[in-house]
Design a protein that fits this description.
The chain has one helix and five strands. It is of the alpha/beta class.
Length: about 130
């Protein structure tokens, strides 16, 4: 982007070590971002159940009151979403499989891979 950009990060999780969403979201109670009246682009790695993304969108709108909020995801799983969520930009649609690599992990493993691949349960690390 050839415009002034400020970047904020937020750590949110609903997997808690498994390969399916737990339905319980870990997210900070208050978001410390000065976004009131700003144009905001929320970027996420993957749209799966919709739980995480919909909750973060709601919190940003309620607590930060941006002028606009658009959402981009790298991957969108082809599956019914537990929560309806609006996404403005999608990189790729994928099948309903657990993927790792390119920053996405399974219990801390595989995040370093320079590509995105489907997790093979027979190749999971032993505790």
């Amino acid at each position: 982007m050839d415009i002034p950009v400020r970047l904020h990060t937020l750590s949110v999780s609903s997997y808690h070590g498994g390969t399916t969403s737990s339905g319980t979201l870990k997210i900070p109670e208050r978001l410390p971002f000065p976004l009131a009246g700003k144009q905001v682009l929320l970027v996420d790695d993957i749209l799966d159940s919709g739980l995480t993304l919909a909750t973060v969108q709601e919190r940003l709108r309620e607590q930060c009151q941006p002028a606009s909020l658009r959402t981009a995801v790298l991957l969108h799983k082809r599956r019914p979403e537990a929560r309806e969520v609006v996404v403005d930009y999608v990189g790729f649609e994928i099948e309903d499989e657990f993927v790792v690599g390119y920053g996405m992990d399974y219990q801390g493993y595989y995040r370093h891979l320079p590509c995105i691949g489907v997790l093979n349960p027979s190749q999971l690390p032993r505790p």
